[in-house]
Automatic annotation (TrEMBL):
The keyword Metal-binding applies. Transmembrane segments: none annotated. Belongs to the adrenodoxin/putidaredoxin family. This is 2Fe-2S ferredoxin-type domain-containing protein.
């Protein structure tokens, strides 16, 4: 079974088993990853599940749609590889992915 590593702002790592078909947000919530608030429950309506992917993994993730990009525009720590974890569907190709969490969620 594969894994995904969630890395908090302070460098603390959380390694969880990858579950293809879930979203990164659901995987984080199910594994009590600190820093993923997911206030809207995955409806792309709050931006509290913001993550930054490493460049090599950014291209593996499905592309962001307009509603996600609008929410990310309001995120103060947005980077070129920012995503809302509620919109990133996990695939087996993401085995070993590192997901960085911002210092603060919106």
């Amino acid at each position: 079974m594969g894994h995904i590593v969630f890395i908090e702002h302070d460098g603390q790592e959380h390694i969880v088993n990858l579950i293809a078909g879930q979203t990164l947000m659901q995987l984080a919530v199910d594994n009590d990853i600190p820093g993923i608030d997911a206030d809207c429950g995955g409806e792309c309506a709050c931006g509290t599940c913001h993550v930054m992917l490493q460049q090599k993994w950014f291209s593996v993730a499905n592309k962001a749609e307009a509603d996600e990009l609008q929410m990310l525009d309001m995120t103060p720590e947005r980077s070129a590889t920012s995503r809302l974890s509620c919109r990133v569907k996990i695939t087996d190709a993401m085995d070993g992915m590192a997901v960085h969490l911002p210092e603060f969620q919106m």
